[in-house]
Amino acid sequence: MWVIGMSARWLFVALLIGTPVLAQEPEGVSPYVGLEAREIKALGPDEIAAYENGDGMRFALAAELNHYPGPKHVIELSGDLELSVEQKTRVEQIFEAMRKNARDLGAEIITAERELDAAFASGTIDEAELQRQTVMIAELQGRLRATHLAAHLTTRAVLTPQQIERYDELRGYAGEHDPAHHHSSH
Fold first, then answer.
1. What is the pLDDT averaged over residues 74-92?
2. Would residue 32 count as lying in a domain?
3. CATH number of the domain that 48 lies in?
4. Looking at the chain, which runs of residues are DSSP E strands?
């Protein structure tokens, strides 16, 4: 009983020691402090760079985690996947086309976000303009996501079921896997 009581006391002391740190955060301080200085309030430097580079930004997780390999990673793993010259060439073409389209759409999203930010900053935005701009941004984001997902879809068609299974293993994806069940014929 004494040991249990001492353990509880040490737990209580540990909690008390940690409490002042939590209590020191001022009430009402926003996690957005400092973001007001950004050129485009809704986009940080990393997000802007990702849009400019045509990066995946997790847009294709529905494909990636359901046995539809991404072209960038297939290229990186081409040796381990034992891609033929034709397969590697085709996946490189898929990747370059996807990346160009993604960069173009990313640039449009950055521009649209900049315009939305400017409309709020100038105080000139109204409900109609808000709807127009946000719908346009959402459409661009949807097109960007579709671009990334389509690249996974097209890449999968280039690979064999064994290569897809190996890709999943190399990427560390666990679980049941039957690429032949999901794979279309060439």
1. 98
2. no
3. 1.20.120
4. none
